[in-house]
């Protein structure tokens, strides 16, 4: 397909395709378009966002079957071939001969690139290595000064995953304040939020002439809550890293939506926890990505979905032993069987 035709074809499956580079369009036309059409015939839509437990299992199955087919002796060699220069030529040949791209993506309705990145994260022996030491943080600063944002090179030098070193550098690249937010910091955050939301509205052509000429801006609530460029917002605030900015923004929205009322303390707090656990158990979903968080937020009150997700996170961390090793459904079952009776008794 020529580039324009490929872009039009992909637009049927990916609404934001106009923002994707020409080189990525060419790759997707080869790796994804036929798969997307097959999924459409089955009534399955292309997915984005967090991978479900079912998809993670499918990736493991696809990788294990490819290893068995080719005789490559580890997932790390398959997905991080550059770490094994003596085997690189053989592994690369086997990948081409046995259609690695098609095999890895089998049964998963997502762009191949996202599946590949997810597989690399799952099978990277350098991932999940715990906290960075002070020495590692200093090394990371030094390596970034030498190599810029070449996270692949830096990750090899530090024996950490690409994603890990990139996210950690985001936290330590400037003096980060871990104390209470100052008025000046809150103002910077509010200005940053206004800038990115206004720019998005302008790009979408949804601003009225009066909104363009003054600071008043009417925005759908969803645009205040989802898919915001947090790294850009972090750089505008300057003294906080992106996760802090996201948490603070959720707190600000929660206070405005609830008019400052406390919804998660005392009797109200107990009732909210009970409602969250009961509704999650009734949903019978296998992964947090499948949860209707908007519905849950309405159970508690008029609050952002991020507020409810944060409450659930605290519940599992404080109540579920070894929660990191449990699936989402196992965590919910534990909360329902073990934690819920105690909460109801307290209430």
Automatic annotation (TrEMBL):
InterPro entries assigned = Homeodomain-like_sf (IPR009057), Myb_dom (IPR017930), SANT/Myb (IPR001005), TTF1-like (IPR053078)
Q: What is an example of a Pfam family matching this protein?
A: Myb_DNA-bind_6
Q: Which residues are in the Myb-like domain?
A: 124-172, 173-253
The terms under GO molecular function for this entry are: chromatin binding
| Cited PROSITE patterns | HTH_MYB, MYB_LIKE
What are the residue boundaries of the HTH myb-type domain, all occurrences included?
Answer: 129-177
Task: List the Gene3D superfamilies hit by this protein, alphabetically.
Answer: Homeodomain-like (1.10.10.60)
Give the record's GO CC terms: nucleolus
**CDD domains xrefs:** SANT
The GO annotation for biological process reads: termination of RNA polymerase I transcription
Q: What is this protein called?
A: TTF1 factor
């Amino acid at each position: 397909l020529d580039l324009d035709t490929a872009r039009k074809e992909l637009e049927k499956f990916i609404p934001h395709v106009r923002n994707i580079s020409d080189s990525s369009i060419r790759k997707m036309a080869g790796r994804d378009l036929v798969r997307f059409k097959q999924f459409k015939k089955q009534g399955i839509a292309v997915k984005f966002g967090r991978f479900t437990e079912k998809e993670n299992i499918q990736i493991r199955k696809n990788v294990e079957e490819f290893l068995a087919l080719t005789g490559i002796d580890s997932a790390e060699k398959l997905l991080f071939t550059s770490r094994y220069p003596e085997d690189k030529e053989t592994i690369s040949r086997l990948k081409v001969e046995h259609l690695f791209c098609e095999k890895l993506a089998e049964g998963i309705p997502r762009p191949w690139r996202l599946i590949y990145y997810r597989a690399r994260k799952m099978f990277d022996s350098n991932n999940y290595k715990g906290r960075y030491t002070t020495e590692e943080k200093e090394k990371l600063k030094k390596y970034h000064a030498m190599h810029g944002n070449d996270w692949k090179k830096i990750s090899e030098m530090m024996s950490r995953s690409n994603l890990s070193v990139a996210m950690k550098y985001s936290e330590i690249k400037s003096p980060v304040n871990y104390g209470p937010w100052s008025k000046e910091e809150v103002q910077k955050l509010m200005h940053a939020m206004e800038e990115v939301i206004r720019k998005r509205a302008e790009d979408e052509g949804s601003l009225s002439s009066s909104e363009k000429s003054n600071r008043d801006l009417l925005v759908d609530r969803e645009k205040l809550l989802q898919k915001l460029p947090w790294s850009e917002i972090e750089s505008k605030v300057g003294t906080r890293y992106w996760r802090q900015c996201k948490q603070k923004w959720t707190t600000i929205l929660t206070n405005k939506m609830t008019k400052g009322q406390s919804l998660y303390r005392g009797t109200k707090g107990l009732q909210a926890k009970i409602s969250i656990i009961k509704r999650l158990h009734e949903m019978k979903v296998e992964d947090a990505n499948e949860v209707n968080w908007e519905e849950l937020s309405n159970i508690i009150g008029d609050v952002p979905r991020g507020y409810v997700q944060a409450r659930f996170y605290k519940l599992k961390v404080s109540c579920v032993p070894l929660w990191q090793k449990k699936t989402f459904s196992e965590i919910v079952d534990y909360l329902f069987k073990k934690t819920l009776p105690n909460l109801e008794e307290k209430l």
